[in-house]
Amino acid sequence: IAVTGSDEHLWKMWALPGGNILMTGEGHTDWLSGCCFRPSGTQLVTSSGDTTVRIWDLSRRGCILTLKGHARAVQDCSWHSWGDLVASASMDSTSKIWDVNSERCRYTMRGHKDSVNSIEFLPFSSTVLTSSADKTLSLWDSRTGLPVHTFHGHLHSCNHATFN
User: Fold this and answer.
1) If we measure between CA atoms, which residue out of 61, 76, 1, 3 comes closest to residue 27?
2) What is the pTM of this model?
3) Bridge partner residues of 112 (DSSP)
4) What is the pLDDT of residue 14?
């Protein structure tokens, strides 16, 4: 199974390798920038130009939670490997750690000076990695929302970062 997000304001779930569309998610009001499965595979998180992050329950075939709090488009989203936290990165220069159980923002991470373009949890860890248009990468502690280290060295916008 693969999931795609598009400028059509929706996501689609595809069966591989045949390519049949299994499910479509409608509800965002602008382009989709990211999508990530919950580790259990039962839910999906999406991020959008409409400034929201949405949680979708695949068995219910619909959105069960809309997380609001970013001031500009949300560029990326990531689900923690334990399944209780979601992270989002926004063009408003912030990232957020959302507690899915309480349906609230746990931390707003501030420190980048420009759009935060990607966000990812280190598996089975409290460490979060962000990349930014300010030409930096930052490591954050998702338990506190505080920066751990910032890496400088890019001459242009850093669009994505990942762990091995």
Assistant:
1) 61
2) 0.95
3) none
4) 96
